[in-house]
Amino acid sequence: MPPRRQPTARQARLGAELRKLREAAGLKATEAASLLGVNSVQMSQIESGIAGVSEERLRRLVAHYACDDEALIAALVVMATERKRGWWEEYRGLLPHPFLDLAELEHHAGFRWDVDFLHIPGLLQTEDYARALFSYMNVDLAKAEVDRWVEHRMRRRVILEKPEPTPYSTVVHEAALRVKVGDRAQAVAQLLQVLELSEAEHVTVRVIPFDVEGFGGAGSAMIYAGGATPVLDTVVRDGPHGTAFVDAEAQLQRFRKLFRKMEAVALEPECSRAFIHRLTKEL
């Protein structure tokens, strides 16, 4: 099988986890390559996600690395052997790669956490809101391209609507609720949709009001996707230089703590719904 030109974030994560296990075992890449009967270039391709790895070879590696985390091993096997193409593959070559990687990530996630301070989280956005947002931020996009971006964002909501939906919790700052990305009617429709979605048992929305004292977390927007095991959790953050997928354990622990800290200062779900309902009357 020829090397992949651009592995997905999930494929790259599989390779990264194999590299972490090798390094934790104190082995060099050349030693692992020898175990599989490949050269160092091929081993590097496996650990970067450019080349795939069979279940037999993966199990041979993790056994040699003395990994006894059965949950992790089982999850890595699934990542290595799954062949089903997801709906997001329809957009490959049509949308930026991070869009597809995010859709794939949340498709496999056991749970999703969002924190946002400037915009309504993507999974809760209306079509009008998403269109106004994409059009404003990407002035050179043709209408057909904007429509495609919006369509993709709306399809991502499948994780909340499928028969066994993904548990979803979000913390949203009052600023994001008040900013009129579109006109007033669209802003009200957007808040009403947040209210409607928040009524589902698997969806939890908490609001941080402006008057919360001692809050300095406005720079901590995140998407947190729970993996098959906590080792495989992922944080997604947007920055000036693009989208970053964070998987270092120290960083994952930091973002877990930050999410819980922001949950603690936010209003409880019932109070948050009352707060949003009141905003619909004020806009």
Descriptive overview:
The protein has 13 helices and six strands. The chain is of the alpha/beta class and 283 residues long. A hairpin with an 8-residue loop joins β4 (222-225) and β5 (234-239). The longest helix has 17 residues, at 249-265. The protein is elongated. 30% of the residues are buried.
Short description:
This protein is of the alpha/beta class and 283 residues long.
Poorly predicted runs are: none
Describe the global form: elongated
Total count of helical runs of at least 4 residues = 13
Approximate strand percentage: 5-15%
Strand order of the largest sheet: 3-2-1-4-5-6
* Number of E-type strands: 6
Q: Please give the alpha-carbon distance between the first and last residues.
A: 57 Å
Mean pLDDT, all residues:
95
- Determine the fraction of residues in helical runs and give it as a percent range: 40-55%
Run of helices and strands: HHHHHHEHHHEHHEEEEHH
User: Any idea what the radius of gyration is?
Assistant: 21 Å
- Main beta sheet: strand number and arrangement? 6 strands, mixed
Structural class: alpha/beta
Give the tags.
283 residues; alpha/beta; 13 helices
Task: Give the secondary structure arrangement, pairings included.
Layout (H helix, E strand, L loop, with lengths): L8 H16 L4 H8 L3 H8 L7 H10 L5 H12 L15 H12 L3 E5 L10 H11 L5 H13 L2 H4 L6 E6 H5 L5 H15 L4 E6 L13 E4 L8 E6 L2 E5 L2 H17 L3 H14 L1
Parallel strand pairs: 1-2, 2-3
Antiparallel strand pairs: 1-4, 4-5, 5-6
Helix pairs in contact: 2-3, 4-5, 7-8, 11-13
